[in-house]
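Late entry, written up from scratch paper. The run itself happened at the end of the previous shift, but nothing got recorded in the book at the time, so transcribing now.
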Amino acid sequence: MNDGDFGRGLISDAEWRTPSVRWGVGTLQVLLLVGLVIGGLGPILWLAKSAITPTIDTITHPMSLFPHGSAWSNLREAWSSVHVGRYFWNTIVIAFGSWASQIVVATTGGFALSVLRPKYAKLINGLLLTTLFVPAVVLLVPLYIEIVHPPLVHHSFIDSYWAVWLPAGASAFNVVLVKRFFDILPHEIFEAARIDGAGPFRLFWSIVLPMSKPIVGVVSIFAVLASWKDFLWPLLVLTNPDIQPLSVRLPAIQSQTSLGVFLAAMFIACLVPIAGFLIFQRSFLRGSGLGGAIKG
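Output as recorded:
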């Protein structure tokens, strides 16, 4: 096999030089790009436009671009009058606590299974993989019972952020993901550190964690986005409206205010996921984080 074989695709060079093939494929590519842009960005752009559009214009001319001017007051009213600012802060607190618990459990669990490697590591890893096949909805009832009557503590976590943070940390997927990343790290460095007298904590904190920034970033993205959009579990365990996140309060906001203010509240709720994608778009699109870490 010569080097030219690696450059072959569905269309050969001779076929690509044909004007009909070149123009036909080029047109399909443009149409596909336009369709992806409209399907992906269209709803977000429409929501941003409707958030600052008067309600009557959104109802009568939903696809028009500000037929009777804009209404920036929608954002101000959503933030203050229907207390979106409070619920937005609640969501940040919940997301931060869920992120912290998942990072701690995933990194320490992955470190124990991959680097320390106890005799029962394969058994635990198999059990973790088994739990991935259990639907999350099946665990709602037993998990809720444990939150209401937690063992050892004997104090209900209902209406406490711990009711969200603690179950979030019990993510087998994150532990398996981090463990697989630790498996491909150069273990010769770990052996050299042990020879130099580094204990498990020093090995974890000073050597493994600095090499694990890419996988920590990936787990962080998954953790924050999952917590930000979670609806069912916060609805069950956070019954006090003053501590509920945006995902739970948005349906109630819909019945309390006008359409324009409600769309403004929805747009505010979308800001963090949008900002997260814009900040980490290179990791999403190129996947350069994991590869860069291994090469480094």
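Residues 19-51 form the longest helix (33 residues).
(Scratch paper discarded after transcription.)
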